[in-house]
Task: inverse folding
């Protein structure tokens, strides 16, 4: 028996739930919307005469070159803005993988964002932040010192994970929500879907990672999550209309007072679950 939430039509997504749903159009439109939303957080903080603090993902991936272009065109000074990346892959000895590794998020952010910015506009090196397996409490100290996170941006994994907070089948929601930055084992589903970026060679995908926790994510003043993969059509329905449970981490967006889910039109469309 298929879950009833799979039949929810696009027009009903989020109906009766606290998470706002926005359908952006195609993948390019979604990436542009995400970049513009990130920039608005930076500009809004500047209007308040302070520097923004954002938690950001690598995936979805297309928004960062667009964000760099907007920052350069509009001459938005981001030197004091803090970009806290959600996660990074680790070696088997729990150290960051080399930045030269094809899957390194640090390498990705340098190539696709920081190196594209005018040097006088780019965030200072100390504000280009990744969770450090050797100093797990550093993220929370940084957040506390800056007065909290203005907005957490992210995507959703095939098993409902956010950042690398993988599902926990038998953990109460309240306990799961308190999990902070930590080192984790990656689920088989996560490694399998992420291997698509390396031609399906799952052996290349590390088994361990360091991740910003549910605690830091849910404490952010805004949650803005974006989905542009065709397979996310079913996942977002589980997130929005299935049980709120640690078995689907992104379902905890429904416990937040200011959460929004932005989808492409094809993700919003109900999945076709028929055998062909």
Result:
């Amino acid at each position: 028996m298929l879950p009833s939430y799979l039949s929810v039509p696009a027009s009903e997504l989020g109906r009766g739930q606290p998470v706002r749903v926005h359908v952006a159009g195609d993948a390019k439109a979604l990436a542009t919307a995400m970049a513009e939303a990130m920039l608005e957080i930076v500009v809004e903080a500047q209007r308040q005469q302070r520097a923004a603090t954002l938690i950001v993902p690598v995936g979805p991936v297309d928004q960062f070159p667009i964000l760099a272009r907007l920052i350069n065109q509009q001459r938005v000074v981001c030197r004091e803005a803090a970009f806290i990346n959600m996660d990074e892959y680790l070696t088997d000895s729990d150290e960051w993988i080399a930045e030269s590794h094809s899957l390194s998020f640090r390498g990705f952010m340098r190539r696709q964002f920081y190196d594209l910015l005018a040097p006088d506009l780019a965030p200072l090196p100390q504000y280009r932040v990744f969770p450090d397996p050797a100093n797990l409490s550093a993220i929370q100290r940084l957040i506390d010192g800056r007065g909290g996170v203005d907005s957490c941006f992210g995507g959703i994994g095939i098993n409902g994970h956010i950042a690398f907070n993988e599902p926990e089948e038998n953990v109460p929601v309240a306990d799961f929500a308190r999990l902070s930055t930590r080192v984790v084992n990656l689920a088989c589903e996560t490694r399998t879907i992420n291997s698509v970026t390396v031609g399906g060679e799952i052996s290349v995908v590390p088994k361990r990672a360091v991740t910003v926790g549910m605690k830091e994510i849910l404490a952010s003043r805004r949650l803005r999550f974006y989905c542009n993969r065709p397979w996310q059509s079913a996942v977002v329905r589980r997130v929005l209309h299935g049980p709120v449970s640690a078995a689907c981490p992104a379902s905890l967006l429904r416990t937040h007072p200011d959460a929004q889910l932005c989808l492409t039109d094809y993700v919003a469309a109900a999945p076709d679950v028929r055998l062909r």
In short: The chain has a mean pLDDT of 96. Residues 27-47 form the longest helix (21 residues). Residues 181 and 212 are 4 Å apart (CA to CA).
